[in-house]
Design goal:
Length: 606
């Protein structure tokens, strides 16, 4: 059935605008349902139809698997030898070399390579690819860079009971690893569930330590070996020394015996510059400095007692809380003590008494940090009580420069590895101070509030860009420094002149004070001799001497008064007449005129 409906309109109404209006609905067609067509009905689901003309798109997310990177050691030896030749046999190897050198292929290969090498050498001589041709422009740009610091990473102690990050040590070959020693230094505050472990962290994966260091006692200090980065030495809270090889696992390879170790916590352990790379030395508050060879830790190779009286008595020794060693000065080292005294030592001295060469006193509390300037080794920095002081080895009486007294205690310090006049200090209120003495000396160039708890340890990378700060609750904050990481053109010369000027000034002041002390000492000795002489005289002699001195004073006072009265009289007469007559003796007087005398005599006659 086809339904059609026709719409008609007059031609005159074509083009007229439509005028719509409301009207009631009208039934055009009414088709009743046909039950016979129900069998042909097909259900359709869904019955919606899209009317958009854009293409269909879907959203899809994929999480890739994490790439696990591992570092493996590779032992490279000389190769390329035939199987029948032993590389260790010098005679066979030299004979084989001579045979190869006579081969025509070897000669042609060498000649071809020589031509390539000659081309590269000439090209390198023409243009130095390692030369800095625009260093001045770059230096000018660096000068305008503002001083700032930003936090790049935070490493937290993974244990529930938090401990202090007592020492930090950067990996010597790469700056991506950091060894942290954790320990609680508060006496008798250790808990039963407190962990003894320390950790090596990979900065690319700070959520989990790369290696766990498991000592027998909490580590106070932990230091990488600069020659072999797989070996670390640690000083324990119970005084023992241990070393680890990261290739052999978490447990120490060897630990020193309790009988020959320190009796107090080991606050300093440093590697020595030796051919084997296995020697180190340590210092503790028990007043001893011990030298070790990690190949045999059963007993120390050498011992020094820090007795400044040079009698070698352990009961008179000063406790060491900081230790310093400069590889460029292999025979010298310095120790900071609990009593605020810095001890300079020489390891190669003949007797133990001669090993203590000098002492420096200036702090009112323990010397928590002691480090030499990497550009001027004779200049060193110390931190104690509320100040940081810069010293010169030439002056032992006082420091050449000192910071202001802070409201909180200073806990650690280190020099910048790229700028000679810049150093860092940490405080017990959680503040990191960056000082540049070429800019200003009264206040730090930059102060950063790192955390609310006290900062305890501080370590700067060798590149001078990243500094690590360890807090009392075991949080290690890594900051990237901007503005103080590039050595300027004349900065080293200016810093050297500043240190030399301050050293010379202190020398002049010390010489003046020494001279005043000598005069005071001589005066006191003269008074003592006079008092002793008076004590040796009899009472009658003392009485006669005092009486004689008394009358001499009275007589001198009478002569002075007479001279004063005579002088006043002479002045008055001189004002009246102006004629002065001198007669033998001390006094002088005026002679009156004859006319005046005759008038006076005539007046007396009746």
């Amino acid at each position: 059935m086809e339904i059609s409906y026709s719409y008609t309109r007059k031609r005159s109404e074509f083009g007229r605008p439509c005028a719509f209006s409301d009207r009631p609905a009208e039934i055009t067609v009414d088709i009743p349902p046909d039950p016979s067509m129900a069998s042909n009905f097909i259900l359709r689901d869904p019955v919606d139809t899209a009317v958009q003309h854009t293409c269909d798109m879907s959203e899809h997310e994929v999480n890739t698997e994490r790439v696990e990177v591992k570092s493996h050691g590779l032992n490279h030896v000389e190769g390329g030898w035939p199987k029948d030749i032993n590389p260790q046999d010098l005679e066979l190897t030299s004979r084989f070399r001579k045979k190869v050198e006579k081969d025509e292929k070897y000669i042609t290969t060498i000649l071809r390579l020589c031509a390539l090498m000659e081309h590269c050498v000439k090209q390198n001589n023409a243009i130095d690819i390692y030369g800095e041709y625009f260093g001045e422009e770059e230096m000018a740009e660096v000068e305008d860079e503002p001083l700032s610091a930003k936090t790049i990473n935070i490493i937290r102690d993974p244990n529930i009971t938090k401990r202090t990050a007592t020492h930090l040590s950067w990996h010597p070959d790469t700056s991506k690893k950091l060894a942290v020693a954790y320990s609680s230094l508060e006496f008798q505050h250790t808990m039963k569930d407190m962990s003894l472990d320390s950790y090596i962290w990979d900065l690319e994966k700070p959520h989990k330590p790369e290696l766990i260091i498991r000592p027998s006692s909490p580590l106070v200090t932990l230091e990488y070996n600069p020659k072999d980065s797989h070996i670390l030495v640690g000083g324990c809270y119970n005084g023992q020394i241990a070393y680890w090889d990261t290739r052999k696992g978490e447990l120490p390879v060897e630990v020193s015996t309790v009988e020959f170790s320190h009796r107090d916590p080991v606050y300093g352990a440093i590697w020595l510059q030796s051919k084997t790379g296995t020697e180190c030395f340590s210092a503790s508050t028990d007043g001893q400095v011990l030298w070790w060879d990690i190949r045999k830790l059963s007993e120390p190779t050498e011992t020094l007692v820090l007795d400044i009286t040079r009698r070698g008595l352990l009961k008179e020794a000063l406790g060491a809380v900081s230790l310093e060693f400069e590889p460029t000065m292999p025979t010298k080292f310095m120790v900071g003590t609990e009593q605020g005294i810095i001890i300079g030592c020489n390891r190669k001295a003949k007797t133990p008494a001669e090993k203590i060469t000098s002492t420096y006193s200036g702090h009112h509390g323990p010397v928590y940090a002691l480090t030499r300037n990497p550009f001027f080794p004779q200049i060193f920095l110390t931190v104690g009580d509320r100040t940081a002081r810069i010293w010169s080895e030439e002056i032992k009486e006082s420091s050449i420069m000192v910071t202001k007294y802070h409201l909180s205690y200073l806990t650690d310090a280190c020099w910048s590895t790229v700028k000679p006049a810049v150093f860092f200090t940490t405080r017990s209120d959680g503040t990191l101070d960056i000082w540049d003495f070429l800019i200003k000396q009264k206040d730090p160039s930059l102060s950063l509030k790192i955390c609310d708890e006290p900062l305890f340890s501080l370590r700067l990378q060798d590149n001078g860009y990243v500094v690590g700060c360890g807090s009392k609750l075991g949080t290690v904050t890594l900051l990237e420094i901007s503005g103080l990481c590039t050595l300027q053109k004349n900065e080293k010369t200016l810093a050297g002149s500043m240190f030399e000027r301050e050293t010379r000034r202190e020398k002049i002041l010390e010489a003046r004070q020494r001279e005043m002390r000598l005069k005071e000492h001589a005066r006191s000795e003269a008074q003592e001799i006079e008092e002793e002489t008076r004590a040796e005289q009899s009472p009658q002699e003392v009485f006669d001497r005092v009486r004689r001195e008394y009358f001499e004073i009275i007589e001198e006072e009478l002569h002075r008064r007479v001279r004063a009265e005579t002088q006043n009289l002479d002045d008055k007469v001189k004002d009246l007449t102006g004629d002065e007559v001198a007669v033998p003796g001390e006094e002088s007087y005026l002679v009156p005129d004859k006319e005046e005398e005759e008038e006076k005599e005539a007046a007396k006659e009746p």
